[in-house]
Amino acid sequence: MRVAILTSGGDAPGMNATIRAVTRTCIFEGIEVYGISGGYEGLIDAKFEKLVQSSVADIIQRGGTILSTSRSDRFMTEEGLEKAINSLKIFEIDALIVLGGDGSLKGANKLRERGINVIGIPCSIDNDLAYTDFTIGFMTAVETVTEAISHIRDTTEAHGRANVVEVMGRECGDIALYAGVSSGAESIIVPEIETNINEIAEKAIMGKNRGKRHHIIIMAEGCGSTFDFAKDFQELTGIDTRVTVLGYIQRGGAPSIFDRILASQFGYLAVKEAKEGNSRVLGFKEGRAKAMTFEEMFEAKKVFREDLLDILKTVSI
Ligand code: F6P
């Protein structure tokens, strides 16, 4: 049997740990494994290379992806899709394992609809896939943001200022929410909940009146301009307000322990599912890695953790 693996879309810490788990499980099971470089672009251009045990040595702790990645416009065309399928046929691949986020798993489904056996593994710092509790890379990004905010907090406190910290996540507020709870940020602004600037301003003024010298607001990138918000907030409160856009720092770095363990579970399960001849997406539910159908993925509706927001509002005052 032959399996191929690719990483697609935005890289996520833990992709390498997943590639390692897939490769080593394949070899253990007597399955040949090929790495495709450059995501769907590389699939179209048949950039296959056989992986052996040592190909994935010393990568469990590394961010990024040794296979490299891309956001492929060509794969969205009929011609690109045909070429991709052709590459899989030339290399006689029995199953393709795709590591990526929302768009990448939708791409995997296109191949499945054409009769290719595909296993999708959710990798994205955004945690915006509804069918799984967590995507690989998310918890690492939350840790990176939390660490960055502890630095920002020191200088904010020293000056008696406010700081609006912009985080990634596309249309999903999970990075802001989880990092808000773990960093003790006073307020978060997320696309899922309507923003009430007066409420945030009142909280800051009350804090200031109690002698508090810092106010951290985490704003998800899907909520518009952090600079405009900071300007309005400063005008309302009179508190000197700065902006920090964390940007790509959130995508790199060593994966957290949680992400390494998640990656190992997903990589192992992906090979088992491929061996069975299944086409599935893998998710993390009730503390375990689980294989689900693509239909289940499409039907799932993302639920924003309002319970966590309530905790934040109660304890970060
Ligand atoms: O999906 C991951 C992500 O980092 C998002 O949070 C962000 O909006 C986007 O990718 C940035 O994409 P690019 O790397 O193409 O600039």
Automatic annotation (TrEMBL):
Keywords: Allosteric enzyme, ATP-binding, Cytoplasm, Glycolysis, Kinase, Magnesium, Metal-binding, Nucleotide-binding, Transferase. Pathway: Carbohydrate degradation; glycolysis; D-glyceraldehyde 3-phosphate and glycerone phosphate from D-glucose: step 3/4. One of its GO terms (cellular component) is 6-phosphofructokinase complex. It is found in: Cytoplasm. Homotetramer. It catalyses: beta-D-fructose 6-phosphate + ATP = beta-D-fructose 1,6-bisphosphate + ADP + H(+). Residues 2-272 form the Phosphofructokinase domain. The gene is pfkA. This is ATP-dependent 6-phosphofructokinase. ADP binds at residues 20-24, 153, 184-186, 210, 212-214. The keyword Transcription regulation does not apply. Mg(2+) binds at residue 102. PANTHER family: ATP-DEPENDENT 6-PHOSPHOFRUCTOKINASE (PTHR13697:SF4), PHOSPHOFRUCTOKINASE (PTHR13697). ATP binds at residues 10, 71-72, 101-104. One of its GO terms (biological process) is fructose 6-phosphate metabolic process. Its EC number is 2.7.1.11. HAMAP family: Phosphofructokinase_I_B1 (MF_00339). Allosterically activated by ADP and other diphosphonucleosides, and allosterically inhibited by phosphoenolpyruvate.
